[in-house]
Amino acid sequence: MAGACAVQPSHRLCVTDYNTRLRFLIDTGANISVIPVKSKYINNECSDYKLYAANGTEIKTYGIRTLELNLGLRRAFKWTFVIADIRQPILKADFLNYYGLLVDIKSKKLIDNLTNLNVNASIINSREPAVKTVDEKHPYHSLLSRYPEITKPINFKELPKHNVCHHIETRGPPIFARARPLPPDRYKKAKEEFSLMQELGICRPSKNSRIQTSVTPVTLLLHLFGTF
């Protein structure tokens, strides 16, 4: 476990999520937002995806989980986290940037630039290592660091860096298949994913009455992160 390695302590701001009671470190040096494996948001299987501490130590991961954080700022903050073998949850800088959150170290506050609300935070002396998606000793580290989106989970909350927009135009009746109930765990995951995609604007319910009364097959595949 990376947390067992000798790491010099550093002062970091810490905020609390009131939904899960997890205390998140705000770490601008981290490449990815993570939650600890000991929390209840865990897939029991260790995935093939690996993270790295600043000293190159490998950190095991156990899938991904999308959480809706309540930081006491009167709005929800939904984000996708990697479940990793670390001691404390970590929020990286792009989470703050996406939601327009400002860190005031001197006043120990997290400020919502959108609503001008703020919440008290705390400064803790942490030994939690900075989490990286690529080992700094890797021969292609400098190249991969220029394209960080390649080595981290896709987060649809992040705006794309291009103006390309894809759409699929369909005609005629929809594809039909005999109803085959999914196993309970896969059905739950599929329902969560479709709800999330609707919220993110990736998909929306059809207005076609023929589609609403038809059955379309759904196939779930095991992801690199150990989830469906």
From TrEMBL:
Domain of life according to the entry: Eukaryota
Q: Which Gene Ontology MF annotations are present?
A: hydrolase activity
- Identify the residues that the record assigns to the Peptidase A2 domain, covering every copy: 22-36
User: What does the UniProt keyword field contain?
Assistant: Hydrolase
Alphabetical list of PROSITE patterns matching this protein = ASP_PROT_RETROV, ASP_PROTEASE
Per the record's keyword annotation, is Hydrolase included, yes or no?
A: yes
Stored InterPro entries: Aspartic_peptidase_AS, Peptidase_A2_cat, Peptidase_aspartic_dom_sf, RP_Saci-like
Record bears the keyword Hydrolase = yes
Q: What protein does this entry describe?
A: Peptidase A2 domain-containing protein
